[in-house]
Write a structure and sequence with these properties.
Blueprint: H1 50-71
């Protein structure tokens, strides 16, 4: 006879109907098989374009170095 397990208040999730299937995390969106990569939902961080993701941070870094060198 096995000893009863202590109840810590946490409920166990129900087992999936398909044993090979894995549950997706709650914070990710599902992608349909018919979707192209451009139509796929973006989860997590916002996607930047060339200007917002490359040009702006580069210019801000260069200007920051110039200001640091002038003030130092």
């Amino acid at each position: 006879m096995t000893a009863p397990q202590p109840d810590n208040g946490a409920e166990t999730p129900p087992a999936p109907s398909n044993p090979d299937a894995q549950a997706a995390p709650d914070d990710t969106a599902e992608m349909d098989a018919r979707m192209t990569p451009e139509e796929a939902p973006i989860s997590g961080r916002k996607k930047f374009g060339t200007f917002g993701g490359v040009f702006t941070p580069t210019v801000l870094t260069i200007l920051g170095v110039i200001m640091y060198l002038r003030e130092g």
